[in-house]
TrEMBL record:
GO cellular component: plasma membrane
Molecular function GO terms recorded: lysophospholipid:sodium symporter activity
Name recorded for this polypeptide: Lysophospholipid transporter LplT
Membrane spanning stretches: 20-41, 53-70, 90-117, 163-184, 220-245, 257-278, 285-302, 308-330, 342-362, 368-393
Membership in a protein family: Belongs to the major facilitator superfamily. LplT (TC 2.A.1.42) family.
Organism expressing this protein natively: Mangrovibacter plantisponsor
Length: 407
């Protein structure tokens, strides 16, 4: 306990920087591995509709283990949880690299990612507090997006050169993430003495779900982040099929470059959110959410690289501005109710159910032959309408709250 004040000195403390390095390496490996594994599927002549299924098995791990990973993150020092999770990711990448079924290996990586997420976000609330938590989330998102940018490009470029080399790099990067986790200070567990009986853990997680979904602010955050990440992962796979149709290119690298433009934009948007939005002004992010859908619809009808790059960067900026304040709001409110780890686990459940549904619909649309450009336009319009509905609901809730507190 004596070291607690030392690790809470600020955004650029030793503990925070160690978390950012570990997060960068872990996210780099995740994104490089995705595009390397997609190249494996293409090399082995899997059908196009199986590509989103790869992500669905990853997402399924999040959903299956959601009742357990929050307590796991809160019951141990979060830096050690991150290390264990990264070790499991390393093992999953090694399975793919060794030539075993890519869906099995990617499922193992998904289990590691499910355990990792509550710890990586939950530790932010232990290293900093208050409005600085928004800035800490901005740092986390910037580190993550920089890793997405570099990892996606590295995965696609290396896979074009040599698929086995791309997979080997992923294994090495995960090894670096495991090593970086040793530099994170050993903080006190957030909650101890909880039962590890599976039935009781499920009941405890169900209570956390009910608590957060009952509260207006956390329900708003959960819905918004779930819709955002469900849309984000679907856009990533949409790009893989959109590039050859709209641009006539069949390489592995071009979709990664386009994803990189989104990543660059998110870094800028996250930075703007850290400066312009506080926990009291979270609703400022909502117009950006609506414009994400509009941007995707316009992007889908492009047929040249330059406007595609520009639009994807703008979409990324809007996305960073939209999601960072919502994450900070949930972490702050969750820390004081169900624990930060449980709050992030509940968030992961919502986000990954949204991903599973959107990827399932996307995979079905591809399988039945809907044109990829039509999928993109429809997807963008539906997202804009959905976020508009969430915004209207939020304004109604705020109005009711003001009426209850008025003299």
């Amino acid at each position: 306990m004596a070291k607690a004040p030392e690790v809470q000195q600020g955004l650029y403390s030793r503990g925070m920087m160690a978390v950012m390095v570990a997060q960068f390496l872990s996210a780099f490996g995740d994104n490089a591995l995705l595009f390397a594994t997609l190249a494996v599927l293409k090399q082995q002549f899997y059908p196009d509709w199986s590509q989103p299924v790869l992500q669905m098995v990853f997402v399924g791990a999040y959903i299956l283990f959601a009742p357990f990973v929050g307590q796991f993150a809160d019951s141990l020092a979060k830096g050690r949880v991150m290390m264990i999770a990264n070790a499991l990711k390393l093992f999953g990448a090694a399975v793919i690299c060794a030539g075993f079924n890519p869906f099995v290996g990617y499922t193992l990586v998904g289990i590691g990612a499910a355990a990792y997420s509550p710890a990586k976000y939950g530790i932010l609330g232990e290293l900093t507090t208050g409005d600085r938590l928004v800035k800490a989330n901005g740092l986390m998102e910037s580190s993550t997006i920089a890793a997405i940018l570099m990892g996606s490009v590295a995965g696609g470029v290396l896979a074009d050169w040599h698929i086995l080399a791309a997979l080997a790099v992923c294994v090495l990067v995960y090894g670096g993430a495991v090593a970086a986790n040793f530099l994170i200070p050993r903080l006190q567990p957030a909650r101890t003495g909880l039962s590890w009986h599976p039935g009781k853990m499920v009941a405890h997680f169900s209570l956390a779900c009910r608590t957060l979904w009952h509260m207006g602010e956390t329900r708003f955050s959960l819905v918004g982040t779930s819709m955002f990440w469900g849309a984000g992962v679907t856009l990533r796979f949409l790009l893989v099929l959109w590039v050859p149709v709209a641009l006539g290119l069949t390489d592995n690298a071009t979709p990664t470059y386009l994803n990189a433009m989104v990543a660059i934009g998110i870094v800028a948007g996250a930075g703007a959110a850290a400066r312009l939005v506080t926990l009291k002004t979270v609703a400022r992010c909502m117009p950006a959410g609506v414009l994400i859908g509009v941007g995707v619809a316009f992007f889908a009808v492009q047929h040249s690289l330059l406007p595609a790059y520009v639009l994807l960067m703008v979409i990324g900026m809007l996305g960073g501005f939209f999601v960072v304040p919502l994450n900070a709001l949930l972490q702050d409110r969750g820390k004081h109710t169900v624990g930060a780890g449980n709050a992030i686990a509940v968030q992961n459940l919502g986000e990954n159910i949204a991903m599973l549904l959107m990827l399932g619909l996307y995979s079905l649309a591809v399988k039945v032959g809907v044109p990829v450009i039509g999928i993109g336009v429809g997807f963008g319009v539906l997202f804009a309408v959905a976020i508009s509905g969430l915004w209207v609901w939020k304004r109604g809730q705020d109005k009711k709250a003001r009426q209850r507190t008025a003299p």
